[in-house]
Every structure is written in C-alpha cells, then in structure tokens.
Fold:
Amino acid sequence: MIFWILTTPRSGSNYVAGEIWRRLGGEPKPMEYFNPESVACRPDFTPDPAAPVQSYLDHLVAREGLGGILGVKMLWGQVQACCRYPDFLSALTGRKIVRLRRRDVIRQGISLFIMRQTGAWASGVAPRRLRLDEVSYDYGAIAAAVDRIERHNSLLDRFFAAFGLEHLSICYEDFVAAPDAETDRVLAHLGLGRATGALPAAEPFAGQSTGVNDTFRERFLADERARLRGDGAFRGPPLFPTASPTSAADSDAASD
Structure:
C-alpha cells in the first residue's frame, strides 16, 4: 500500500509523518523520497522508461516499506517536477492522499527563512551555515518566503481540483494540540488501524521554533502594519476626488 502526504516547506511534515510511522510500528523517519538528493543516492535503481514513477515506487516499497506500506511525502516543487511523467497521475489516482497545511503561514515563512540561513532542516540537526544567533532579521526575505508558501498552497489546491483527487485535509497546529486524535483520523482515512507492534508514545512535541522565531514574527507584523497603514505615500490614481486649494478658496468666497 502507498499513501501520499502533499504539503509545502516547513509545514511540520517531518513531525506528522513520524507520528504516523511510529503508530504503524516503525521508527519515525522522513519520507521525502522525490527530493532530488534522495533520488540521486539510489544508484541501485534504474527507472522503467515506460513507467519511471511507478517503477521507483515499487523499488521503494521493496526497500523502504513497512510491512508493504510506503508513505511518500511531497512538496509542491516535487509534485510539479513529477507531472512531466505520464505515469505520475496514475500513481496518485485512487491512492490515499493527505493534504497537510499550516494555519500560521507567517510563522511557517519565518521558519523557512531561518532554515535557509542555518541549513538546519529539523530539530537536532546541526547548522551547516549560520548559527541561530547569527541570523539577522530581513523583512524582504521573510515576505518572499511567506509569498512562496502561499503561492504553493494555492497551486496545490488547484492541482487537487484540476485532477479531482480526493484527500484528507489536516492542519499542523491541530496535530501538535492532539497528536493521538489526529493520527487516529489519518489512519482511519488510510484504512489502517493501530499496529500491534506500535512503538511507545513519543515524548511531548518540541518543534524548532524558538524565541528568535517569535521575535522575528513580531517585527514582521510591525513592518507589515507600517507598510499597509495609510500615510499618503501612494502615488497611484486617487480613489476619492479632492478639491484643489484654489477651488476651495473660491467656494469659501462664494458663500460669503
């Protein structure tokens, strides 16, 4: 059995995927098999030219599956790249799909910005670039990250609508608040129950968010307010006609 988790960067997908896998009896692990780095590190795989995606999935089930179950996590960029292969949509159609999103897209964008600066993509991963305390606030870069996530969310929604793909929508914040209940909901959608070999309950969730994330969020929202608040600086055509000083004076004289 193959199921899919379609999402956007920094949505908490590693945590959600890990909870699902733990309940099925396996150690939590990422499932982003269509990341180019993941594909490149499989020299033992040779795609079938007639069905490259399905042959890759068969390869993964044989080597990575948990009792014949394979979970595949994909970001929008990977979905878009796979659409060039004719057998991709047939590999999705009729499968169980989970759509994961995050309500607080601003915090998600800040997480993406910080990850790009540090290179640390998960909790416990050592920074490969800057240390967290070396990351400087950058309104423009954070706004671009937020815009990218919002666009990718929209493109995923359009993708589901265009191909009529049925799916279960879940939210990262709900998963953090009630992981067991939300995992039950996902497993019910997948048609899977709690495995007899399920691992013990995980430790309370501790995400990557820190005081830096909170500080950046407050600064970003303050900058947004300053950007959006009316200050007379807009140089486009006026919405409301205004009287010129001359006409106003003439009007006053006429009323005397």
In short: The longest helix spans residues 139-163. The chain is about 50% helix and 10% strand.
